[in-house]
Amino acid sequence: MPQDIIIGIIVIALCAYMFWRINRKSKSKTNTTTDVEQLEKVIGLLQNIDFNIKNISTRTANYRSKKRFHVQTWINNKEKLEFIDPGIIDKLREGFTTAQECNAKIEAAFKSKDLVSMQTLEMEKMREPLNLARVGLIEWLRKDYELRHSSTGSRGLFKR
Question: Which residue pairs from 23-30 have beta carbons closer than 8 angstroms and sit at least 24 positions apart in sequence?
């Protein structure tokens, strides 16, 4: 009889331990997924910013260019950036709002076939806020990288 009680306690303890391990692994996968989603958002925004800054130069050299400014990543994610500093979000909002306004004017100019009106686009208004947002997002990436790799040794090997 006492052996049955001991075996029962061991079985219950093993089951509790297995449940705890499975629960812990599922939580770490959820955190990793969230981290990957955050990284994808930041990288997507950086790609849009880089394209838009380059597009300012392209459109300045050739105002008749059909290239629009990329704003879709901002539109899709602007309500999901709570992990980014509000100051950076303000700069993103300012830059991408200007980009959207320019896109609307480009669209209207091509519709009306009045391409001369595209010479007066206020594209330069987006350069500074996008550059400032870019610096902030790169800093966020740097901090995220350091946080993820803080457990690496001097040779880059994981410590155990």
Answer: none
Q: Under a CB-based contact definition with an 8 Å cutoff, are residues 136 and 91 in contact?
A: yes
How far apart CA 114 and CA 60 sit, in angstroms, is 17
Start-end of H helices in the chain: 2-61, 72-77, 86-112, 124-148
141 CB burial (10 A radius; 0-12, 13-18, 19+): middle
Residues in the chain: 160
Instruction: Please tell me the pTM assigned to this model.
Output: 0.72
Angstrom distance (rounded) from CA 49 to CA 70:
8
The predicted structure's pLDDT at residue 160: 38
Counting as low any pLDDT under 70, the low residues of the chain are 1, 15, 24-34, 151-160
**Contact between residue 57 and residue 65 where contact means Cβ atoms under 8 Å apart:** no
